[in-house]
Amino acid sequence: MLPFGIPKRYPLQPMEYNFTDIEKRWKANWNEKEVYKVPNFSEKPKCYILDMFPYPSGAGLHVGHPLGYIASDIYARYKRLKGFNVLHPMGFDAFGLPAEQYALETGQHPADTTEKNIARYREQLDNIGFCYDWSREVRTSDPKYYKWTQWIFLQLFHSWYDREQHRARPITELVEIFDISGNTAHVCPGDDTISFSADEWKTYSEIQQREVLMQYRLAYQDFAQVWWCEALGTVLANDEVVNGVSERGGHPVERKRMRQWFLRITEYADRLLTSLDNLEWSEAMKEMQRNWIGKSSGAEVKFYLSPTLPKREGGVSQPREVEGWQTAENRSYGDLKQFKQELTRNPTATEEHLWNFLRRDQLGAKFRRQHIIGSFIVDFVSLSHNLIIEVDGEIHKGQVVEDNARTENLEERGFNVMRFSNHEVLHDTEKVIKKIKQQLGLQPTSSPSGRSGGAAHITVFTTRPDTIFGVDFLVLAPEHELVDAITTPEQKNAIDEYRTYVKSRSERERMSEVKQVTGCFTGAYAIHPFTHNPVPVWIAEYVLAGYGTGAIMAVPSGDERDHAFAKHFNIPITNIFGEQYTGNEAYSSKTGKIHNSGFLTGMSVADATEAAIGALEKIEAGKRRTNYRLRDAGFSRQRYWGEPFPIVYVDDVPYGTDEDLSPTLSKGEGGVSSLPVELPYVKSYKPGPEGQGPLANLTDWVNIRTTDDSAHSASPSPSERAGERLSIKRETNTMPGYAGSSWYFLRYMDPHNDSEFASKAATDYWNQVDLYIGGTEHAVGHLLYSRMWTKALFDLGHIGFDEPFRKLLNQGMIQGSSRFAYRINGTNTFISFGKRKEQPVTEVRVDVNIVDGQELDIEAFRKWRPEYANAEFILEDGKYICGAEVEKMSKSKYNVVNPDDIVKEYGADTFRMYEMFLGPIDVSKPWDTKGIEGVHRFLKKCWRLFADEKTGWLVTDEAATEAELRILHKTLKKIGDDIERFSFNTCVSQFMICVNELTGLNCHKRAILEPLIIALTPFAPHMAEEIWQNGLKNSSTVLDAAFPVYEDIFIAENSVKYPVAVNGKTRAEMEFPIDAAQADVEQAVLGDAAVQKWMEGKTPKKFIFVKGKMINVVV
RNA sequence: GCGGGUGUGGUGAAAUUGGUAGACACGCUAGACUUAGGAUCUAGUGCUUUGCGGCAUGGGGGUUCGAGUCCCUCCACCCGCACCA
């Protein structure tokens, strides 16, 4: 259907430019001859040009989407004319939330809607005439594709990052290292307190070993916060939460901790940062990535908590003989280590099992295991909640004490003790966890008595250790684990209240609202490592738990936010910058000397930083540290429409489906050994229980073997009898959207390979992507993840390059241009734009497709919606003029323009050239259909150089004139240069100038027009082919012609018209030979009447002559 | 808030290395041809001024013989901020 505003055409002349016919014919011809099929090997140099992977949404393409595709298509076609073997593929990022959301709403299966959307996208893309090799199409939701997504995930799962060699290595090699020398040479990235020798490692059970290995794997499990919506029973994405409630239904949401998969991208932080330097990306883009990675160097500083300050009500009767959370420095660390080791040698499967539910604050309290209390070692303890959990210890060696006596003793120390049996923990885990949760709820969070004693400390990260003497307070993130422990009774209510407030705030809000200073004093004090002065400890929302250590040292005289905070809460400010700090504003500049700072006084920032770190290390109160803002990438989604994980849980311990699970399970049992793990078909997309994804509802699929499986319980194996390794379940989360898109550029190289993700020969040949075009919205997501995947695959020897995209070009957005009509309040009468202020009106949106420029098609408007059928109009100059505004192009704003409509009306060639003509590729601009007329006129005018509309082709074999050759070669030079620098809009302008001039010269000569039409081929391939084959009678396709070489000799001018300025203002124009000498020019210029007039008789002070550019006389 | 981007006629823009600001188009005005015009062609079109000229690249300041371009500062708008893809 034509848009309303565009009227019908008149019948064409016999040889008029009939784009509809031309484009249809050549598309069919090209298709039939498979002209876009690309071989994997060739004598020609290769060139890999890639568009960013589209997600096929239900709305279809609008005119903004193809902008980058057209640019890359022109570049690809140009490179082909220049003799390259060009890989230019396209496919679909087909997994994703919108399809699943749509499924929930309409009941249609995501596979079906995705299929439909892809078909529509394909049709729209074909319409525009792209040169994609569709035989290489990939879809992330195709099992043949995600088989390899899962395979790569397993490579990451089976790898660790060697910090010495700066590369990923197979986890089997790590096991070999552990067998020989323990982990002494390889600090555990997941938990740097883990430390063991080879002997200790060998005594660990398989479960324990795997737990340790999990802390090293590049794909690993940990716990993370997600938005949980009780009412919807599901986990929500960030953008499904609006203003603290669910976007759907407006239900309350809360943060919930869940076990999730992560990619250890932080291990690659430094490499991702340094190898940016070699990429041809815009500085802006590199800067965004650098910023995201956020490398900062500084120091970690320990502030010990003050045991004496402040005075407390009621005094402290008997400080509990707890060794503190980090047992006292001098005495107990060795002991603790020893105990830990002893216990880890003899854990039970039950303990391991329970630990999975307790670790990492899952239940809202920090638990420690195998912790020393008095003379006992308890299984699990939450110091903040005074809760000890013990599991029946009959397997324990050494610590089997009379349980009752033990409990009594511990309770005397102020702890509550819960005991569970092995059986309870293993078979009734849910009940056990529930009980623990209940107990945690009842348990007052740590009374302060004695709790902040010992060697407890707060660790802060600072980039300015030189300002250590300016520390006036510490600030903890409100979620910091020590907050409960250190808060004094007087401050408890205030802290609780403040934490409730913070809970309601998103991370974004906490960072952005900087004017409003909020915070709360904990009542606790820390001790300054050098001055030993007490430093008050606050909590405030501007400190985020996820950054650094979740705690900062505040230096108000040197930091804006700290300054505002100190002023707001009347905290005295120590000035360490002398006169540079005025008292009104923090001095955050890094120039000048440090004052009032003990041994740092008088030093520069750089020197003081080094000296401070040195001193801190000497007194063991801190150390040098590099910090990254980058966090590990969450890789689990509680969704249906994504790649299933190739992971099974054997009694809750995750294994890759490619692992040999014997002796418990023979390899291949339950069909787990082969990839892909296919996404099972479901009829309901409802979330599973407890925030799990919909796959959790498929119990048959999830449970490969269950404990009460009659076949097994009839003849229990020895391990089953021992209560171990009973059930085998599948992972029910799916992978996020970026999984499939992190490596798709590799699959295009060898898309049908069934035995590898891509053959080494293919990846070696095509190598890096030479040109990648896409939007800046992918700056820190997709572009970072695919860089990491590439590096990991490189490290493991699967590919020969470690950066995926050599050159990156960002396209701007095409915005919508919305139209508005003005209804007089309380009536159905609309008043034209110019008169709208005469009466009170309401602005209503009008579909941009029924407006011609600014003028409303009144009849179309009446037909648009029933409520406007009888609308009346107050016109101006006989027209109804609409208001206009530039906004994002979206359905709800009625400003979407469909490329299909434009192509139908003007043809694909016009559409392609117009999109380029709009402006520079990387700049955002609004779409205006009106302007397309100019480009269309140009193509028609160009056509008329070759054909008379009434009589037919009129190309002659006459010899070209100098003027004709000049304009041709000027054009060839500019087109070549401009395509190479991706300036496509100026190419179009140059074509227009060229055609205008040739029309003026009445040129119809083959010698001029044939090279011109080849140069036009990347932009208007259909018209070029029609002219090339039918007009110029060539027998092969123009797509494989050779791009004509321009020759300087035709362009060179022998004289230049110089602008002549007097005192910088242009006053005349004079022509001189190209090689004129300055003396001659000077004489001629100074003798010129116009110049003399403007010199007003003054003598020239200076004569500036820039050869070929301009002349300036200074008087 | 942090990070990034963009500001030039009524509109999209050009000016590639600091050298005649507004190329090329849209729109508009007038005209030609025409049964007709949304085809085609011609002329005009930054603002201001009768003219000479003056003023103009978001605002202000600076460097320079010369600044849209370099520097400082302020303002406006757009994009991203970790589960949209």
Rg on CA atoms, Å: 36 Å
Overall 3D shape: globular
Kindly state the mean pLDDT as a whole number?
A: 83
Low-confidence stretches: 1-8, 308-340, 394-401, 444-454, 709-724
Estimate what percentage of residues fall within beta strands.
15-25%
Helix run count: 38
Structural class: alpha+beta
Portion in helices:
25-40%
Number of domains: 7
The biggest sheet amounts to:
7 strands, mixed
The number of strands is 41
Q: What is the terminal separation in angstroms?
A: 68 Å
What does this structure look like?
- With 1115 residues, the chain is of the alpha+beta class.
- It has 7 domains: 47-140 and 742-811, HUPs (Rossmann fold); 154-267 and 633-730, no CATH class; 329-442, VSR Endonuclease (Endonuclease, Chain A), CATH 3.40.960; 457-627, Valyl/Leucyl/Isoleucyl-tRNA synthetase, editing domain (Isoleucyl-tRNA Synthetase, domain 2, Alpha-Beta Complex), CATH 3.90.740; 814-887, no CATH class; 902-1051, Isoleucyl-tRNA Synthetase, Domain 1 (Orthogonal Bundle); 1055-1114, Ubiquitin-like (UB roll) (Roll).
- The protein is built from 38 helices and 41 strands.
- The strands form 11 sheets. Strands 10, 15, 16, 17, 18, 19 and 20 form a 7-stranded mixed β-sheet that branches.
- The longest helix is centred in the N-terminal third of the chain and has 19 residues, at 110-128.
- The protein starts with 18 loop residues before the first helix and ends with a strand.
- The structure holds one RNA strand of 85 nucleotides.
